[in-house]
Amino acid sequence: MLLLNKVRELDLRTPPQAGRPAHLSAASGLVRAGDFLYVVADDENHLGVFPARGTEPGVLLQLCAEILPHSPAERKAAKPDFEALTLLPACSQYPFGALLALGSGSRRNRRTSFLIELGADGAVSSPPRIVDLSGIFAAVEAQLNGINIEGATVSGERLRLLQRGNKRKGRNAIIDFSLSQLLDALLTSDAVTDARVLAISWFDLGAVSDVPLSFSDCATLPDGSLIFTAIAEDTEDAYTDGCCRGAAIGIIDASGVLVFLQSLAHPLKIEGIEASLLSDVIQVWLVTDADDASIPAALYSVELSTKFK
After folding, report:
1. Which of 13, 50, 175, 301 is the most exposed place for a label (fewest CB within 10 A)?
2. Tell me, what CATH number does 203's domain have?
């Protein structure tokens, strides 16, 4: 089993809104760019920005203008549910790349997406830009019985989305789209209204105490492999939270074969992953969601050997 190293809690200089604690609690997506760690939280309208080194409190970049209710049930119904964050490559409009934040799509109000331009040092360089990815969500919906996008990553010429299963609909899937089609559409307008699924790959990750392990985030390694997190959340659907019975880190190679799957020593609800390759070691960073606004999300790290095969 994998034992994680706790690096820090995701505390903030200021709270997201009056009456909320000064930390992120439901971290759900993670990207490192330059000297910065970017984190989306599924119960906030903001992007968290943290130093890649050290433990200085993070700051917030507002994405949606709406103020979310404090009541947990009302907040859950109203939130945009940002679950996926990925780094798009440099292009003519974004010479140093941009972040793409996506909602889970599990409800109509959870399909909001944003582009955030980055500068040469990885810092945010312009205000967030709302984009319409209705074509992508519609294409996924046409192929799957219910949407719950939990991760996104760029791999070569493809944008890859991770569909998370559950106890009732337990199939995990990777859905591939053309990256160039996405970028071309976003460079000429604020919308991707028509998109075609290039491929869908299905994965059974096993179960913990009869609760299936389901995708919760992903990142791409230099060789094209996909490293992912999976959690066994005891829930029947894409809306209701449940107890986390277990968690794991896995790797799917460039040919689509699951080549590594290792459980975590403690059942942390890991919902965000970033990774880099250092010689024969994969350095992994992870963020958590405690499903409790009073508990800060945390950043963890672990090293994996590339010689697991």
Report:
1. 13
2. 2.120.10
